[in-house]
Amino acid sequence: MTRLLAVDPGVHASGWALLAGSGPPALVACGLHRVDPSLFDEWPVSIDVLAIEVPQVYRAGRSRGDPSDLVDLAIAAGRAIEAVGAGEVRRLRPAEWKGQTPKAICHRRARALLGPDELGRLELCLAPVARPLRHNVLDAVALGLWASGRRTR
């Protein structure tokens, strides 16, 4: 059985999704962890593949937010990579796995690939997450589906 952990690290919150299975991995669990990257220090199961989004620098004018946040984001990603200790690490820039696809479309496509049981798990995972932060979890799910080969851009 392959266990794939997808992480969308953030400066204030990180989304994560665990996919597992002997065939195409299915969504097993997902969630949001706020601020403290130590979530990954004691991950409860061994991880075969860690798929993690890493920061991408955009040209001036296309970037949103404080550019210095990229440093904190890189630190959060590095901390997760080190702590999880996966056999394989896939560092993915947004352009590699989702291109310029808007979040709403990316999330809709990811949901369309999930089976009924997976959709139920996703809804249970999203329920306690504040609506403005749910995109972090959905990004992690979409990243996990892409890294597992279940989804293209």
Describe the fold and architecture:
This protein has helices spanning 69-84, 94-97, 103-113, 116-126, 134-147, and strands spanning 2-8, 13-21, 26-34, 49-53, 88-92. By secondary structure, it is α/β, with parallel strands linked by helices. The chain has a 5-stranded mixed β-sheet, with helices on both faces. A hairpin with a 4-residue loop joins strand 2 and strand 3 (26-34). The relative contact order is 0.24.
From the spread of the alpha carbons, the general shape counts as globular
How big a fraction of the residues is strand? 15-25%
Q: Could you give the count of β-strands?
A: 5
N-to-C order of helices and strands? EEEEHEHHHH
Structural class estimated from helices and strands: alpha/beta
> What is the residue-averaged pLDDT?
84
Number of helices: 5
- Backbone CA Rg: 14 Å
Strand arrangement, major sheet = 3-2-1-4-5
Residue stretches low in confidence (pLDDT < 50, at least 5 long) are none
Helix percentage: 25-40%
Largest β-sheet summary: 5 strands, mixed
Distance between the termini: 25 Å
